[in-house]
Amino acid sequence: MTAVHAGLTTTKAPFIEQAQANGEVFIRQPYELYSPENHETWRRLYARMMPRWQKYANRRFLAGLSKLAMDPHQVPRLEDVNRFLQPLSGFSAKAVSGYVPAYVFFDCLRNRAFPTTITIRDGQTLDYLPEPDIFHDIAGHVPMHTDRVFADVLVRFGEVARRAAELAHEVADETERIRRVESNIKALARFFWFTIEFGLMREGQELRAYGSGLLSSYGELAHSLESPEVQRFPLQLEWVINQYFEIHHYQPLLFIAESFDHLFAQVDELERWMLEGRLNNVSPGEPHADERDLWSFLNAERRGPG
Questions:
Q1: d(CA 7, CA 5)
Q2: Which residue segments constitute the domains of the chain, with CATH numbers given?
Q3: Which entry of 197, 212, 217, 296 is annotated as an active-site residue?
Q4: Is residue 216 annotated as part of the catalytic site, yes or no?
């Protein structure tokens, strides 16, 4: 009974610790382990976000939220989410035990699968969590995945990452190969951060949020669109791939896409720049590509498709 009552609270879940110790990345969602406190945390998060979503969220996010028909009172079952999601865009939420190496994550997107954290933050710290949780992944990301145009952007991004892995194998010198891969990972991560995670978009005469990092944060969602302290610039690829970011505070700089077609075109441009070698020397700084990220790209061909 102890394991059941321990729940699936982020950083405090024995089930996750065991899966990680076993080297398991993709896992099941042990729904029976969620505690009453876990469900209450979901209820509180969902209830306080709804008015902010209605005020600040992109209309396609709001439409997706309605299509998913999530229960606002309890943690969702991924199988229920996927029952609504898959017919709309072919995407599905795929439970993971925690960190997913960069190439594995991007290749999941290419195959219309979204790596999804199953733990939920502690109810005592609703406002801030440095690592993702199921509220960020399901309530923040997945409503956008119901939109086929946006889903295709994610697939296209995954294809670009796959091409980056293929190009790495064309470089004979190992030191140079690693240097280029690290720069490419940095560029891809920055693009993903400033669009999919923290993107703003024009909607008529207004700005709305479509980035999941904003849409899952009660404080930052309003701050991103209301605060005079935030710099907001048109989405420009050369700025995005050379701009470092830090994760432990509200973002001081955000980029505005004109439309989802504009965003898709930027992913195409990202691939062209990669093929021209323009992602091989991006500016230094965060995010740091750790060894797991590097080797996920360098070993991609050996592993085969995700």
A1: 5
A2: 2-303 (1.10.800.10)
A3: 197
A4: yes
